[in-house]
Amino acid sequence: MNLFSPCAKNAPKSGVYxxxxxxxxFDLITVRGAxxxxxxNVVFCDALVDPKMLEWCPQAEIVLVGKRCGKYSTAQxxxxxxxxxxxxxxxxxxxxxxxxxxxxxxANEEIDALKSANIYFEIVPGxxxxxxxxxxxxxxxxxxxxxxxxxxxxxxxxxNYEDQDTQIYYMxxxxxxxxxxxxxxxxxxxxxxxxxxxxxxxxxxxxxxxCLEELLHFQQENVFHEKKPVIVLIGxxxxxxxxxxxxxxxxxxxxxxxxxGN
Amino acid sequence: MNLFSPCAKNAPKSGVYxxxxxxxxFDLITVRGAxxxxxxNVVFCDALVDPKMLEWCPQAEIVLVGKRCGKYSTAQxxxxxxxxxxxxxxxxxxxxxxxxxxxxxxANEEIDALKSANIYFEIVPGxxxxxxxxxxxxxxxxxxxxxxxxxxxxxxxxxNYEDQDTQIYYMxxxxxxxxxxxxxxxxxxxxxxxxxxxxxxxxxxxxxxxCLEELLHFQQENVFHEKKPVIVLIGxxxxxxxxxxxxxxxxxxxxxxxxxGN
Lengths: 262, 262
What we know:
Helices cover 27% and strands 21% of the residues of chain A. By secondary structure, the first copy, chain A, is of the alpha/beta class. Chain A has a six-stranded mixed β-sheet. A five-stranded parallel β-sheet of chain A has the order 3-2-6-1-7, sandwiched between helices. The termini of chain A are far apart.
C-alpha cells in the first residue's frame, strides 16, 4: 500500500517549503508535507516538532532552529539568513514548523526574507493546534445557538463582550489568571468552561477541565510539564468536555482522598 | 517510497471516523486521514469534497451525502442515522467532510448521534479552508503590530471594534455587502483590505483583491462560479496580498481597455 500512488507527482521544485508539521503526532502532517520532506535536502526544524516527524526525511540534513515557549533559542534573523543561504546552494529546503506555519509562527519575517532574496517558496498548511485539540476533545469550537465565532489569539483582548465567542489561546500557559481576568471583565460568566490541553495529539497528551473563576486563582507550577505547550480553550461549547476531563484544581474531597491514599 | 513506513500501524479499529478532507487538493489531507480512508469499508462523502480525494479509498463503498452552500441536499438526520446503521454493520466507516470536520460542519449532531448509539468514533482534523487560503496568499492572518487575533466566523458579528482583528468568513459569498456594512459600522476603515479566494487549493482556484468600501456595493452574479465555495479574508494584514491580486471590481481604465480589446 503506497500513500503516494494517487498523487504520484514529480519531485518538488527547487526552493524553500514552509511546512506545517501539525500538532505533534507524526501522522497528522499532510500528505503533501510528508512527500516534500521525503525529497528534502535540508530541513530546518522547530524545537516543538516531535523528533519522530523527522522519520519522514531520513535522507535530509537536519538543522535544529528551536523556539520554545516564546523564547528564541535561535535568533529569527539567523534562521532567515540560513534559509536564504541554503536555498541558494541546495535544491529542496524545508522549514518545518509546529502546527500551521502561518499561525503565530513569525512566518512573516521568513517570507519577507525569501521574497527579498527572490527565492521560490511555497507554504504547505498544517493542522493548527487549536483544531487538533478540538478533535481530541470531540467538541467543535462553534455551535448554533451557543457560539458562531472562534477567536484564535495569543493575548487577552480588550473587546467588549457581546457574542459568546469561543476563544482559543496559544502560548497562554504563563498568563492564565490574566486571561481569566480579562474575559471576566469583558462580561464572560465566572462559570464559563475552560479546557487545557498539553502536548496535543502526542502520546503524553493530558487534558484538564476548569472554569474562568478557578483559572483566576490558578498557580500552574505543579500541574504542567515545564517545557510542554498548553493550549487553552474557553467557551460555553466546552461545558461537557470540561466536565468530563480531570479537574484542573481537585475538589477538597479529592484532595482529602489523595492525602489519605484512597 | 512508502508514506506509510514511518507510521506502520495496524488497520484502524472498527468504528466511525470523522475525517477532514482539507480545502480540496487531494494531497492536503493528513497522512492519518488518507491511511484510514485506505482501510474504510464505507465512506460518507460531502459534495464539497473533490472527487479525486476518493482515489485514496478505491476499495470503499461511497455514499454521497452532499451539502452545498448551506443547502442540505441530504437531511442531517438521515446522515446521522446512516452513520449509526453503517457502524453497526461494518468495520471502518468514514465520514469525510471538507476542510476541518469541526469547523462549521454541523459535526455536533453527528457526534451526538454516535455518542447516543454508543459507537466508537474518532475525529481526524483537516486543514481548514481559512488557513489553506492564507497559505495560498502567502500571508499569515496575524502579524505583530497589525493584528494579534484571528476571528473565524460565518456571520458578521456585532462586537464593537477595538483591536484590528483579522476576520475570515466561511460561506460568506451570499452576504458580502452585509459583511462590509457590519464591519464598517464596527469601525473598520473603508480601505480595509479584503481577499476572496474561490475553490482554495484546487486547480481552478481564483483569488481577488478588494477593500470593504468596494464590497459594500458588490454584486457577485458575474464573478464567482455558481457552486464553488468562496472564503473571505479581511484585515490590514492582507494589504499587500489584496494589492497584488486581480481586482474584484476592475478600474474604469481596465474596463475601457477590456471594452476596446486592449
